[in-house]
Amino acid sequence: MNPVSYLKTGVILCEDNLAVLAGMPSDCIDLIYLDPPFFSNRTYEVIWGDEAEVRSFEDRWEGGIQVYIDWMRKRAVHLHRVLKPTGSIYLHCDWHASHYLRVMMDGIFGASNFQNEIVWCYEVGGRGKKRWARKHDTILFYSKSQTFHFDWAAVAEPRKAGTHMKARVDEDGRPYQEKRDARSGKVYRYYVDEGTIPPDWWMGPQQLNREAAERIGYPTQKPEALLAKIVAASSAKGDIVLDPFCGCGTAIAVAHKLDRAWLGVDISPTALGIMQRRLEKSAPSWTFRVSLSLWPTCAPCGLLSFRTGSSSESTARIRHASRAIWESTGYRSWNNSPCRSSSPRRSVAMWWTTLRRP
Hints:
- By secondary structure, this protein is an alpha/beta fold.
- It has 3 domains: 1-153 and 199-286, Rossmann fold (3-Layer(aba) Sandwich); 158-196; 294-358, no CATH class.
- 30% of the residues lie in helices and 22% in strands.
- It has helices spanning 17-22, 42-45, 51-61, 65-82, 98-109, 224-234, 250-257, 269-282, 301-304, 312-329; strands at residues 11-14, 29-34, 83-93, 114-121, 136-143, 166-169, 175-180, 187-191, 201-202, 240-243, 261-266, 288-294, 348-355.
- The strands form 2 sheets. A 10-stranded mixed β-sheet has the order 9-4-5-3-2-10-11-1-12-13, sandwiched between helices. A 3-stranded antiparallel β-sheet has the order 6-7-8, with no helix packed on it.
- α4 (65-82) packs parallel to α5 and α6 crosses α7 (250-257).
């Protein structure tokens, strides 16, 4: 992609995020959340089996952990570039590669800009009997500079009663807790209605179980409440949130609900269809865009012939536009499988289609 001097938001891009990030302007994003493929195992990594997803998986895995980290580093360098000086990034990972990713992020964002290693604890899932149950993920929180947005009041937790602090009420009737430092004699007062800053270990929300109403069929789906804490604390209304591995779209759905602008990227066209239907269901009167890149190494039909979950008119408009673009490439077939034509491989510019619910 060619670099651009502006940034479209409210857009889902079906493309390798490395190409998307390379074409984005610098210093344009307020908050980045990424939940990339964990360095786990083959059957878990490939969710949909799309050709593009399989190809991306093979790029990550050939050569082991160092190849995976190199694959991530190329993207993290661009993520640092597109992040505003006041922006923050949250990298979601687990025990397979969290230690490698922490070192990588220190090298790109600077160890001094590391803010938290958030431990998200949950109970859902099986428990092996050979070791302590692995029941947490790690979320690495970095800023781009020492001046960054963090609104702890937006995610404040209630103060617990019955602590070592004394419970009192001020002259205006506001309850507070008070303690005195034994060495300095300084008195600290904490008002109950202001809450307290959450710690960096989160016992909730829980991982989604199979029967959860929020489930939409994506195996690694994260709960909206988890993303709501991150988006509310590290962005303000109107800020731009980027998820370069948006999967089923939890981060962008939460960003939209909290009045943030957003941009989502995922390489899987199947995931793209799920995100589109999810957004149309949660915001039926809202207009957003889907962008599909036609790759030079395969036919675009697999990217273009997905169900929209919208009105038949919208579906027809998408298919009409996609077929016109298809025919302009010189490929000889139009179907639901990759094109094996011997026609010259061509790159087609990214195109936009606006989807409107009636």
